[in-house]
């Protein structure tokens, strides 16, 4: 092909089919997109072994994308249910699926995803290694961690999260700087515990160059995980979080030297007044690499409603530089999400992404809102359902459950509807409120 990765191709002036597809989808000039990919400010995660993937571009200059986490657990081990969630997420417009399976035949599920799912597929090999080897954590060797990473690459995974920013140095700093909620990243906690149990360096940090060689061979995009993301408002922006981010910035430069695409994972729990600054710090330290955020969740007090707290933070984060929003469901902190939970999380995340795209001046986003407001002005209910962010499912249900006497009204205002009456006046008609 004359190139190894999408970044390598862009730097060599080769216009790949994936680059052309993303440019068309984003309505952006091919040369401009190639420049962003060459500089690392946009990524196109497409593993060479994921033959059915629909190329997707992630970067702050592009439309905001969303990721859906799912996967099996010891308590919920139904592959068919998880695939139902996958297909529902794809139908609802999720650009990426992240398989966080932590029990069962994880490889079978992963291979099914890369064989059948057109969305970008991500994984966290740290979780899978524990399942795959099925032995005490401290008995897993550095080589075994890396072998699982390569297995995921061979299976066609487009992007992988590795928690390599928490090395022996940053781990010591974490222990010295007491945190309110310690480490809440599952992958981060596993690799931290492994380092403490074995006395060894984080293998994903120690053998980072080998990781990069694997990524280059299969064109895997690295998602540099934030093991020390804040798990509470109290810990937001603390030393552990920022020091790890500095390490991730250094690792980003090393990846780019080998033409490996990189995303940076971000918080986490964070008050509203810190979100904008956090985005700007990441862009500075990591030279504009796409920022992939979980939320941020802007308060700790809403269990059962964390899809809302995350959407609030996500909209602000994406407005000021985040490229990729990891959805949060109402089940966050409580249980494995159901199909309905997944749906609620996706809708909340899509609203946040779209709100940010409006704020960034994206023409498609503005056109969508313009057409919806036009349908509302015309009291065109079917058009409103068609344009609704969920395909009109909830709006159609609500209107169907409360039928008005007159079609050009709803049961809230009836004939006092402002839109109806102004339309009538402007057409030279009588306003018949009490008739």
Automatic annotation (TrEMBL):
Residues at which substrate binds: 69, 98, 127, 163, 185-187, 226-229, 265, 292
EC number(s) on file: 4.1.99.17
Chain positions recorded as Zn(2+) binding sites: 269, 333
Pfam (any one): ThiC_Rad_SAM
Enzyme's top EC category: lyase
InterPro entries: ThiC, ThiC/Bza_core_dom, ThiC/BzaA/B
Co-factor binding comment: Binds 1 [4Fe-4S] cluster per subunit. The cluster is coordinated with 3 cysteines and an exchangeable S-adenosyl-L-methionine.
Pathway: Cofactor biosynthesis; thiamine diphosphate biosynthesis
Keywords for the protein's UniProt record, in alphabetical order: 4Fe-4S, Iron, Iron-sulfur, Lyase, Metal-binding, S-adenosyl-L-methionine, Thiamine biosynthesis, Zinc
Cofactor or coenzyme needed: [4Fe-4S] cluster
GO molecular function: 4 iron, 4 sulfur cluster binding; phosphomethylpyrimidine synthase activity; zinc ion binding
Any single Gene Ontology cellular-component annotation: cytosol
Residues the record lists as binding [4Fe-4S] cluster: 410, 413, 417
Catalysed reaction, written as an equation: 5-amino-1-(5-phospho-beta-D-ribosyl)imidazole + S-adenosyl-L-methionine = 4-amino-2-methyl-5-(phosphooxymethyl)pyrimidine + CO + 5'-deoxyadenosine + formate + L-methionine + 3 H(+)
Keyword Metal-binding applies: yes
NCBIfam families in UniProt: PRK13352.1 (NF009895), thiC (TIGR00190)
Similarity remark: Belongs to the ThiC family.
Protein name as it appears in the record: Phosphomethylpyrimidine synthase
